[in-house]
Amino acid sequence: MKIIHISDIHFTIPGERMGGLNPHKRLAKALADVNENHSDAARIVITGDLTHWAEREAYDALHEVLAKQTVPVRLMIGNHDDRSIFLSVFSDQATDELGYVNHSEVVGDSTFIYLDSTQPLTHAGHFGADRCAWLEAELQQAEHARIFLHHNPMEIKLPAEDQIALVAEDRLLFKDLLNTYRDRIDYIHFGHVHAPIHGTYCGIPFASVPSTCNQSYPDMKEAKLLAGGPMEPAYHVLLIEGRETIIHQIPFNWDGPLFASGAEWEDWSKPVAAE
Ligand SMILES: [Fe+2]
């Protein structure tokens, strides 16, 4: 099974840039690459920061773009989004009983759990007792689960970025759940950090995906200001077989040369006439 993971597309009102980049062109390029090379994917999952300034026109533009996709798309919101405006534009979006954009579905033989880790007027993540109760009920029913959310639910040891991770008190609640149900959680996928970060947490592998727009730079000393720039964007292709996962990072915006070479040993021999 193939899944496409895209994040932090930061849509604007069409015509407006964000951080010097055109988020509409970037997503269009990413989706064109998906459609050309991965139209066999089972889902496109976009883990939040769907817009940058949470304007209705930006959500309308995204709705129009995604309506043309043949691969089913699943959406989460991030710290730059507005839940109520998002839900008013994406009116068929599933939510939990409390109105959070928490939802789940069985894809293949795995339960995909999509979380809402946002709170108004803060860039930090929140996933308190009420949302943890919903997540626990989902995990109790799942044989195998895969969690998608916007915020990193753990510190990533970048002091400035860790200011806006899932807040400390909610990290503890979330960690308890992960420790209790880790045997049935195959992977955690998130965005928010605009960088590829991989590791394990509570014994569960995790991966974040770069943004389709600006990237962050891993400054391990700076405590306050986030570092970033227009480095190469990417999306992830998840290849899932049972409980096994392979992740390929696709630099969809690369327009430089690609060199073709064979895999036979002789191809690596230095030519006699080499200079
Ligand atoms: Fe973002």
UniProtKB/TrEMBL annotation:
Gene3D superfamilies hit by this protein: 3.60.21.10
Highest taxon in the source lineage: Bacteria
SUPFAM superfamilies: Metallo-dependent phosphatases
Record-annotated Calcineurin-like phosphoesterase domain positions: 1-196
InterPro entries: Calcineurin-like_PHP, CNP_phosphodiesterase-III, Metallo-depent_PP-like
This protein's UniProt keywords: Hydrolase, Iron, Metal-binding
Top enzyme class: hydrolase
One example GO MF annotation: metal ion binding
Pfam families hit by this protein: Metallophos (PF00149)
UniProt-listed Enzyme Commission number(s): 3.1.4.17
Protein family per UniProt: Belongs to the cyclic nucleotide phosphodiesterase class-III family.
PANTHER family the record matches: CYCLIC NUCLEOTIDE PHOSPHODIESTERASE CBUA0032-RELATED, PHOSPHOHYDROLASE
Listed name of the protein: 3',5'-cyclic adenosine monophosphate phosphodiesterase CpdA
Origin organism lineage: Bacteria, Pseudomonadati, Pseudomonadota, Alphaproteobacteria, Rhodobacterales
